């Protein structure tokens, strides 16, 4: 311990004496370690930390997919749930759930909150013990017995002040009383931290029947029995699906053509499916930044140890063993690395705090990203490993220390063997290679983001306000009441000053919620093996297309005359028109929705619903600007297909936010218990849809800039050191007739040689990771020649500037002074 304290004290004094080196190394390590700490905090929270549920590894998510029909989402039907309850043995517990917005309270300031609507089995599956009251019983999942609610701990405190008397009291939800039966424990949440209460759901016999099969509207989670595996669960579900296909021969070939299958995956894997590759890419990026920084500090240590060689040789001559000297050098690097870790944790904490601005402050599991004990341990472990690697190369050079040669050395800066020069050049080459790879990644993501920005969403989002209104079934039971409500509200909103157009829709583009269902054209014959398609659909009011500026390509928009007494009509987009009427005009033609399995193969029956196409509109990006292979969309008039919860869309003459208060007053004037909620300008919805691409691009650009700077510093440092070491040689060259221009070219050519070698290695590395990059790109190839050329140019210019400074200094060396130096 005494020796360790001596080494620490001596290392601190040495570093304080050489403050320029120490500060440079600390800042370099702090930035690189801080970037790693921030990204690891996200990776730990999202990918590595298990769900906050007992034995979370046993939880699996299941959903039905029909890829050939354009349906790859993550939902399941009620019929599947009851099939699996009876015919599978691999699960302990199974549950259906959805989050849903509900209106809380009465006429005094009603508020919109998020509720978890689920089968009573979900809380048992999650093994949650309430702190007050109880969980739902099975009979509370039956028709007429679902008017019960369980509060989260936060809502219990907020609404009832944490009073025990809350259990047994009623809370008004969507205009109806619900009895509170329990309170969940503090800190518990399942997937969505915004959930305020839980409500049981019950299904009718019609929803459970075979007629409702493949109507997928619910999320599905199950807990495996002890010892059971996901593979066994897949086998049982696949076998069940095969039996059901045989039970319904009329649907079998259709489902096979659609690629029907049930996906069974661990719940955590499902939750992070969209972000996993992005996080691994960013983590790889910060590892490269760390490598560039580590190489930079290693180079500094090599130069410094070379300058200290006489000091080290003297200590060795006085009796200090090589192990003792190596231990002292390692203590210095560990002290620097620990200081860099402390600084890095501070920068990492600031980085995690700033993630809220990038909408990355929460994970798909519903937990917050934080610098916790795991992140701190990782950071210091990383710093220690980095210290050992940084200190290893200078320590290895001590094995070849020649005392007599060192003491005869007359140079001012100590010795620099050929091996040491080769090592420093190799390190700089590695820096350039890593920086080049990072810059290629950043350039590709930037080019990809520009391609995304160039995508037309199919509407004009500027000066459009959106907000939801959801009349409850308790007071608006009939479709006629809903239609009358929306007609009156739209008339009121259109009369407000500054409103240019207004309409309503059940599903707003980029809103995160959509509906799809099968539809066919009358007389259309599918070719062998062709799949049905399930396009997006929504109900809209007159004025919606005008408010969104979705262009009319053929026919007409909906009008007030398209009501419940008029013939059934719809409007389709260009994708559907191209699919069913490739060379014809769809206006006036009919489409139909199958009512039974037999109709899929035998054609329309007496109960089939027919609709006349009255218009064709432009294509709209429904789920995102980069959605792949959408199969189309169709629209019903609201008056013929009433929707309950709808989004009001208002095009304004000025700033959209200026109308929020006026619209809210109109809603309140019609029904004091209705909130106007989820209010958001359409432009903001577009921007939020870009976050998953914008954030990696911004971070990769930042990492690339850091690596570029460090690589430039590395090139400058090596060349500057070489100039200092070769002063006599340069003096001799100039005395023999070389001029400043040739000396300048000599030094610059050395730097450009290192640059070219680094770019070559970096290009090979970029080619090796091209498949990983493909998953993050849109409209850009992983080895895009324009990006490669631009990155090479940027790196070349910066490297040339880094070379020019020491080269200019070398060109100005006075040969008389250089030759006279001892």
Structure characteristics:
822 residues, alpha+beta, 4 domains, eleven-stranded mixed β-sheet, eight-stranded mixed β-sheet, 27 helices, 23 strands, 16% strand
Number of strands: 23
Radius of gyration: 34 Å
- Based on secondary structure, the structural category is alpha+beta
Overall 3D shape: elongated
Q: What is the distance, rounded to the nearest whole angstrom, between the alpha carbons of the first and last residues?
A: 43 Å
Q: What fraction strand?
A: 15-25%
The number of domains: 4
Kindly describe this structure.
There is one protein chain. By secondary structure, this protein is of the alpha+beta class. The chain has 4 domains: 1-55 and 287-415, no CATH class; 90-228, no CATH class; 418-454 and 691-822, no CATH class; 471-673, no CATH class. It contains 27 helices and 23 strands. The strands form 3 sheets. Strands 1, 2, 3, 4, 5, 6, 7, 8, 9, 10 and 11 form an 11-stranded mixed β-sheet that branches. Helix 10 packs parallel to helix 22 (691-725) and helix 15 packs antiparallel against helix 26. It starts with a helix and ends with a helix.
């Amino acid at each position: 311990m005494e020796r360790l304290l001596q080494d620490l004290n001596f290392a601190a004094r040495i570093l304080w004496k050489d403050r320029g080196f120490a500060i440079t190394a600390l800042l370099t390590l702090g930035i690189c370690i801080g970037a790693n700490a921030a990204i690891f905090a996200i990776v730990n929270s999202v990918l590595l930390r298990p769900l906050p549920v007992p034995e979370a590894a046993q939880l699996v998510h299941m959903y039905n997919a029909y890829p050939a029909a354009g349906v790859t989402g993550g939902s399941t039907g009620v019929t599947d749930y009851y099939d699996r309850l009876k015919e599978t043995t691999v699960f302990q517990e199974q549950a259906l759930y959805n989050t849903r917005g509900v209106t809380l309270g009465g006429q005094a300031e009603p508020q919109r909150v998020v509720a978890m609507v689920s089968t009573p089995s979900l809380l048992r599956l999650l093994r949650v013990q309430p702190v007050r009251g109880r969980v739902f019983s099975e009979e509370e999942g039956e028709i007429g017995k679902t008017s019960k609610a369980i509060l989260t701990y936060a809502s219990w405190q907020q609404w009832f002040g944490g009073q025990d008397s809350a259990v047994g009291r009623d809370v008004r939800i969507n205009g109806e009383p619900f009895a509170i039966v329990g309170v969940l424990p503090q800190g518990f949440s399942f997937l969505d931290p915004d959930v305020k209460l839980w409500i049981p759901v019950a299904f009718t016999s019609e929803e459970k029947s075979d007629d409702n099969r493949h109507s997928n509207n619910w999320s599905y989670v199950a807990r495996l029995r002890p010892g059971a595996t996901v593979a066994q669960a897949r086998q049982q579900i696949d076998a069940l699906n095969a039996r059901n296909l045989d039970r319904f021969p009329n649907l079998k070939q259709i489902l096979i053509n659609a690629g029907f299958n049930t996906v069974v995956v661990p719940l955590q894997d499902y939750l992070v499916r969209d972000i996993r590759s992005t996080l691994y890419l960013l983590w790889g990026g910060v590892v490269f930044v760390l490598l560039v920084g580590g190489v930079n500090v290693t180079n500094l240590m090599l130069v410094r140890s070379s300058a200290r060689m006489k000091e080290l040789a003297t200590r060795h001559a006085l009796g200090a063993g090589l192990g003792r000297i190596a231990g002292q050098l390692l203590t210095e690097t560990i002290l620097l690395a620990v200081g860099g870790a402390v600084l890095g944790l501070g920068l990492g904490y600031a980085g995690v705090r700033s993630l809220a601005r990038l909408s990355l402050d929460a994970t798909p599991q519903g937990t917050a990203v934080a610098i916790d004990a795991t992140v701190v341990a990782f950071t210091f472990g990383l710093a220690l490993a980095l210290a050992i690697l940084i200190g290893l190369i200078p320590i290895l050079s001590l094995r070849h220390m020649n005392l007599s040669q060192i003491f005869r050395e007359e140079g001012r800066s100590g010795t620099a063997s050929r091996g040491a020069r080769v090592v420093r050049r190799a390190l700089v080459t590695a820096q350039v290679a890593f920086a080049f790879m990072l810059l290629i990644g950043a350039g590709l993501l930037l080019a990809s983001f520009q391609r995304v920005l160039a995508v037309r969403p199919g509407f004009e989002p500027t000066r459009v306000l959106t907000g939801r209104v959801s009349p409850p079934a308790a007071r608006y039971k009939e479709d006629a009441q809903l239609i009358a409500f929306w007609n009156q509200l739209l008339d009121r909103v259109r009369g407000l000053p500054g409103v240019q157009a207004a309409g309503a829709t059940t599903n707003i583009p980029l809103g995160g919620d959509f509906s799809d269902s099968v539809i066919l054209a009358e007389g259309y014959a599918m070719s062998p093996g062709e799949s049905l398609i399930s396009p997006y659909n929504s109900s809209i009011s007159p004025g919606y297309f005008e408010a969104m500026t979705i262009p009319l390509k053929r026919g007409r928009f909906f009008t007030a005359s398209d009501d419940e007494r008029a013939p059934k009509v719809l409007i389709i987009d260009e994708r559907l028109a191209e699919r069913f009427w490739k060379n014809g005009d769809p206006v006036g033609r009919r489409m139909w929705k199958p009512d039974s399995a037999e109709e899929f193969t035998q054609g329309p029956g007496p109960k089939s619903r027919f609709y006349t196409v009255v218009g064709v509109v432009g294509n709209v990006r429904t789920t995102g600007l980069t959605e792949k292979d959408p199969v189309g969309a169709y629209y019903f008039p609201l008056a013929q297909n009433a929707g309950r919860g709808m989004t009001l869309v208002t095009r304004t003459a000025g700033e959209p936010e200026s109308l929020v208060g006026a619209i809210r007053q109109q809603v309140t004037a019609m029904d004091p218990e209705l909130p106007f909620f989820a209010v958001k300008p359409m432009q903001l919805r577009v921007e939020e849809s870009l976050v998953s691409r914008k954030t990696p691009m911004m971070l990769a650009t930042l990492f690339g800039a850091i690596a570029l700077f460090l690589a430039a510093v590395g090139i400058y440092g090596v060349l500057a050191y070489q100039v200092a070491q070769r002063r006599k040689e340069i003096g001799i060259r100039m005395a023999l007739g070389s001029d400043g221009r040739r000396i300048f070219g000599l030094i610059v050519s050395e730097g450009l040689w290192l640059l070219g070698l680094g770019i070559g290695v970096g290009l090979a590395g970029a080619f090796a990771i091209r498949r990983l990059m493909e998953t993050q790109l849109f409209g850009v190839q992983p080895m895009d020649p324009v990006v490669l050329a631009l990155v090479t140019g940027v790196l070349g210019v910066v490297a040339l500037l880094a070379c020019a400074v020491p080269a200019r200094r070398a060109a100005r060396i006075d040969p008389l002074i250089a030759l006279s130096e001892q």
